[in-house]
Design brief:
CATH architecture: 3-Layer(aba) Sandwich
CATH class: Alpha Beta
Strand content: 15-25%
CATH superfamily: Nucleoside phosphorylase domain
Largest sheet: 11 strands, mixed
Order of helices and strands: EEEEHEEEHEEHEHEHHH
Number of domains: 1
Structural class: alpha/beta
Radius of gyration: 18 Å
Number of helices: 7
Helix content: 25-40%
Number of strands: 11
């Protein structure tokens, strides 16, 4: 299986990366089931990139239906150490306008139905997740996004809702009072699982609308979002083409050792089947 260096998760609207040279599709199997689609591996500059459309090529997976564990495990199996996640979001603040780009630093969970860890089945681990984004990778994305003509915001909190319906107006008002910045349906679990897999992770959030708190956006529709999503997708491709060649392969962040002190279970009590299933992730700490 061909190995890659940088992973890109394509969100709503980003189903292809035309800039990938010598692109080839590959099917990756995982002990957690099937990823959203095949991974497409190719080159941008001198970097080998693996691209995965989060919702499938035809956008046929609900946010709640996404197999986050398989998607992240698949990247790990391909040798990926850094993931850039693209996500369409709504804005919860006036100063973050539609078509703006946000590089968030925090997440807030409002979901209820999603598997969120590789662990269990006889092994317990507690990762540090106070800072869920790799700040080194986020800084590179921000600095390269600022080289474009786009309005780019650094930091802020991404509220992860369950979906698939958009917020009620009361929810939207409440999220603003809580100090949330943007709202989406997917990225938190990718970040959490990437941290467990010791993969650096950062988000490029594309703002499509003001959510329904805004008096002119109180009826958020798919049609409204798609029009801005098409514009945003073209913009984020420019950012990726600028940023990816400048991402160093060496790592100096704590992401690379996230499991060092996280595994609580005594090695001798971990079931053999669980050891085998998670060997790709925990093997260096158990062997």
């Amino acid at each position: 299986m061909e190995k890659a260096q940088i992973g890109v998760i394509g969100g709503s609207g980003l189903y292809h990366m035309e800039s990938l040279r010598n692109a080839q599709s590959t099917t990756v199997t995982t002990p957690f089931g099937d990823p959203s689609d095949q991974y497409v591996i190719g080159q941008i500059g001198e970097k080998t990139v693996a691209f995965l459309p989060r919702h499938g090529q035809g956008h046929n997976l609900l946010p709640t239906e996404l197999n986050f564990r398989a998607n992240i495990y698949g990247f790990k199996k391909l040798g990926i150490e850094k993931i850039i996640s693209i996500s369409a979001v709504g804005s919860l603040k006036k100063e973050i306008a539609p078509l703006d780009i946000v590089i968030p630093h925090q997440f807030f969970d409002r979901t209820t139905k999603r598997p969120q860890t590789f662990f269990g089945d006889g092994i317990v681990a507690h990762i540090s997740f106070a800072h869920p984004i790799c700040l080194d990778l986020a800084a590179i994305l921000y600095n390269n996004a600022k080289k474009t003509d786009l309005n780019v915001h650094r930091g802020g909190t991404y509220l992860n809702m369950e979906g698939p319906a958009f917020s009620t107006q009361s929810e939207s008002f409440a999220y603003r009072q809580w100090g949330m910045d943007i709202i989406g349906m997917t990225n938190l679990y990718e970040a959490k699982l990437a941290r467990e897999a010791e993969i650096c992770y950062a988000t490029i959030a594309m703002v499509t609308d003001y959510d329904c708190w805004h008096p002119q956006h109180d009826k958020v529709t798919v049609d409204m979002i798609i029009k801005n999503m098409i514009k945003n997708t073209a913009n984020v491709k420019i950012i990726l083409e600028k940023a990816i060649p400048r991402i160093p392969l060496e790592r100096h962040c704590p992401c690379q050792n996230a499991l060092k002190d996280a595994i609580i279970t005594d090695k001798k009590y971990i079931p053999k089947k669980t050891r085998e299933k998670l060997n790709l992730i925990i093997g260096k700490y158990l062997n």
